[in-house]
Amino acid sequence: MKNNIISSFGAFLCISVLAYLNSFDESNLWLIPPFGASMVLVMAAHESPLAHPKNILFGHILSALSGVFVFSILGFSFLSIGLAVGLAIFLMMTTKTVHPPAGANPIIAVLGAKGIGFVLMPVAVGASFIILFAIIYNKLLKRKYFTFKDLKRVTK
Question: What pTM value is reported for the model?
Fold first, then answer.
């Protein structure tokens, strides 16, 4: 029960800060729905490889890029949405950066007719914020999340 409360409180804090930053300027989006799902992984399944920082960052970026790329070539259609999600999965699997919440990014990009700026803000900046928050929060609570030892294992 204690771990449930700690995990829920961490998600509350992180998403609340992103929502607060989002409230200052609606044209500069900080928050997208997939970030809520990312919080489930970094708070409730923090030891999962799917919650690893490289998976979060590159999974979100590659998925957003997939949506922007497909939309820029094909525009909006039911096929472009499917192709964008399929491309995102292919890229995440190929780069070993699978992060399931990021699978929603191509849908957002195609439905919202997003350009390359979407990849930077909110996707890359928001994912980076979540990673930093998760590292600090989990370290303060002495929960195993990410260590630089893990990074050395990943890069070998």
Answer: 0.91
